[in-house]
Amino acid sequence: MAADDNNNDNAVVFLIAAIRPVKAGAGKFIDRMRAQNPNVHVQAVDAQAVFGRDHAEGVLHIALEAYRRGVMIAGKVETEILLRAACTDQIADALKKAGLKDGRPGCVIAFSDDKKAIEELGSYLEKVAGLDDDDGAILPTPEKRKKLAKEHGIKNEGRLLESLLEKAAILVKG
After folding, report:
1. Rounded to an integer, what distance in angstroms lies between the CA atom of residue 124 and that of residue 142?
2. What b-and-e string marks burial along 118-136, b requiring 16 or more CB atoms within 10 Å of the CB?
3. Residues β-bridged to residue 106
4. FRET partner for 102 with CA separation of 20 to 30 A, picked from 18, 26, 132, 157?
5. Dihedral of CA 97/53/57/165: which sign?
6. Residue 58 buriedness (CB in 10 A; 0-12 / 13-18 / 19+)
7. pTM of the complete model
8. pLDDT of 16-44, one tens digit each?
9. Do residues 51 and 145 make contact, with C-beta atoms less than 8 angstroms apart?
């Protein structure tokens, strides 16, 4: 569930977790999650927008690199993650394409320099949201491949993951 990003001296611990459907109030769920875990940067997206764990990790790494370089599209890194996951520079479009939705499984993407805080978030999610232990909601299924390829105008479905991450990486502030 959690892993270290040791690409630089400032080690970042992150968590990618598939969660069961949020019954109602997806926005409030995210707000509560952030309030309960103040030392963690947290974003939650619709599981249908995530083409596997590698996609979620790639989006996180791209957002963190944009932050490190000072080239973020958004004012907050949590919003940057959402924009990059949706491959758009428009927040309203990102919420429509990839925002966590009521009644649908989600994917929590979180990071911190505090490993204990990430572990506490994992425990919190287990109690409050219920973790999808096998990551089934974010698996790169053939159905999801077709849906995301069509939504993002990607012709070569065989390179979908690479194409999604490339689209996420080349976004620039307008």
Report:
1. 32
2. bebbbebbeeebebbeebe
3. 19, 46
4. 157
5. negative
6. buried
7. 0.91
8. 999 999 887 899 999 999 999 999 999 99
9. yes
